[in-house]
Automatic annotation (TrEMBL):
Matches recorded under InterPro entries: NAD(P)-bd_dom_sf, SDR_DHRS6-like, SDR_fam, SDR_PhqE-like
Pfam families, sorted: SDR (PF23441)
UniProt superkingdom: Eukaryota
Protein name: Short-chain dehydrogenase
Gene3D superfamilies, sorted: NAD(P)-binding Rossmann-like Domain
Stated family: Belongs to the short-chain dehydrogenases/reductases (SDR) family.
Keywords associated with the record: NADP, Oxidoreductase
């Protein structure tokens, strides 16, 4: 009789909700969770992106399943959820959680928040009160409100988790990104606070270095070349992040039932240079 799989099976049949799971790092997390045998729900504000992501994820194989070449289809669903509108945020998040748990009949095991909006390059001298309030909404306010809703929708156990997304700008802020830096620092504080408030559900944050995704595609080519080149030079690995590698710390936070209230750094050593 073969020995049971103790490590790669930790996510098998677990229910994982990935907000922002239709592109970039979020999609990679969803793909990796499916490959580990999880049941995955993805969301974004765009219906076409949700449909496209589900179609792509249904082709993901799960080696833990007997017929693993076609196992992803039954394990992935998705729906839209707009987290950018203050007037509807609470209702939208509740609707998403109701969908993800089939009306609270199938509670979640893990929730991952990777949603981001455009990063504004500006000095504080150029910012208004309204600017600063709006810039923090998607990356800080929305995941905070979501955290407050999770106790009704997540299994209350140390095997459950909520993972947020921060950035290494929190420890190494570049010029003209002070408001973004403040958000990333606050996300780490949010993770620590929620870890205490939501216990035994674990809460952590990922400090991500520069990882090219679809979010960067609208940038002019000259701008991308300049920023990416400068970042490569400022790492120990001489490289940019890769979405496949970026998914790994999220998996770690889901699988390790003894880590909570902390931040995991994935930045190629940028914070040391």
């Amino acid at each position: 009789m073969s020995r049971p799989l103790r490590f790669i099976s930790k996510l098998q049949d677990r229910r994982v909700l990935v907000l922002g799971g239709t592109s970039g790092i979020g999609f990679a997390v969803a793909e990796a969770a499916l490959e580990h045998g999880a049941q995955v729900i993805v969301s974004s504000s765009n219906e076409d992106k949700v449909s496209n992501a589900i179609e792509r994820l249904r082709k993901v194989a799960c080696p833990l399943e007997p017929n693993h070449s076609a196992s992803g289809g039954a394990r992935v669903t998705g729906t839209t959820c707009n987290v950018g509108d203050p007037a509807t945020l609470n209702a939208n998040l509740k609707a998403l959680l109701e969908f993800a748990t089939t009306g609270r009949t199938q509670l979640l095991d893990h929730v991952v928040y990777t949603v981001g909006d455009d990063i504004v390059v500006a000095t504080y001298r150029e910012s208004t009160v309204e600017d600063l309030q709006s810039r923090q909404f998607v990356r800080l306010t929305a995941p905070a409100i979501l955290g407050g809703l999770l106790p009704d929708y997540v299994n209350k156990a140390p095997t459950s988790s909520y993972t947020l997304t921060s950035s290494t700008t929190a420890v190494k802020p570049p010029p003209l990104l002070t408001s973004y830096t403040a958000q990333t620092v606050a996300v780490q504080g949010l993770a620590r606070g929620l870890a205490v408030e939501l216990k035994p559900i674990r809460v952590n944050a990922i400090e991500m270095g520069l990882t090219p995704t679809e979010m960067h595609e609208p940038w002019p080519q000259e701008m991308r070349d300049f920023v990416f080149s400068k970042y490569r030079e400022a790492t120990l690995t001489g490289s940019l992040g890769d979405v496949g590698d970026a998914a790994e710390p999220y998996l770690f936070c889901m699988k390790n039932a003894y880590i909570t209230g902390t931040s995991i750094v994935s930045d190629g050593g940028n914070s040391l240079v």
